[in-house]
Amino acid sequence: VHQQFVEVVSEGRHMPIDRLQPFIDGRIFTGRQAKEIGLIDELGTLNDAVKYAAKVAGIDEDSDLVYPEPEKISLIDRYLQGAASRYLGINLTEKHIIGPQYFWNGY
Prior knowledge:
The chain is mainly alpha-helical and 107 residues long. It has helices at residues 2-13, 17-20, 31-37, 46-57, 75-88.
């Protein structure tokens, strides 16, 4: 999975893997650091990203945004998730996470 991720980043950012090598060890970067390295194009807010996406897509940036409704969780589901989370030591309220996950117990 790690190698696949590195290859996707290399291809998407048009950077040879040997240039990425010093940065692909799992560290977290600030936005400024990521920009200096070349991992991102710009720093900005969600609104900046929406405006840019609208511009690229040829959509009027003043169009109304429609956000999906947050998933409603019943009181009993919320209680059961909390109890299971405490028992297992993980957060089960984060649903629909696709892909590899790492649960750290904080030793």
